[in-house]
Amino acid sequence: MPTVVYHLPDGSNSVVEVPAGQSVMDGSVRNNLPGIIAECGGSCSCATCHVYLGEDAAQCFGEPSMEERDLLEYLEGASPGSRLACQLIVRAEMGIVEVTVAQSGG
């Protein structure tokens, strides 16, 4: 099963097996991890699941949609590696993917 390593705002890490087809946000919410608030429940409308991806992790996921880019454009603390965890769908062949949860969760 694919594994997501969440680097949390408090400096700790949490390793979670996330079933293929679920989002990085789902893995966090289902395991009660801090930082990913997910106010909109994964509908790409609130940006409270802001994470940062390194280059290796970014290559595991497709390009952000125009809707996601629009939300990220106005998000405080956004960087070129910023993504919304609700839009990062885990695939079976991924293995281990690392994400850094944004400090404010959104």
Q: Give the full name of the CATH homologous superfamily.
A: Beta-grasp domain
Radius of gyration from the alpha-carbon trace, in angstroms: 12 Å
For the record, the count of structural domains works out to: 1
Quick check: average pLDDT?
Answer: 94
Strand content: 15-25%
Question: What is the name of the CATH topology?
Answer: Ubiquitin-like (UB roll)
- Major β-sheet, in short? 5 strands, mixed
Cα(first) to Cα(last) distance is 28 Å
What is the CATH-assigned architecture?
Answer: Roll
Question: Helical percent range?
Answer: 10-25%
CATH class label: Alpha Beta
Kindly name the structural category: alpha+beta
Order of helices and strands: EEHEHHEE
Annotation, overall tally of beta strands = 5
Task: Report the principal-axis shape.
Answer: globular
Output the number of helix runs: 3
**Which regions contain 5 or more consecutive residues with pLDDT less than 50?**
none
- Largest sheet strand order: 2-1-5-3-4
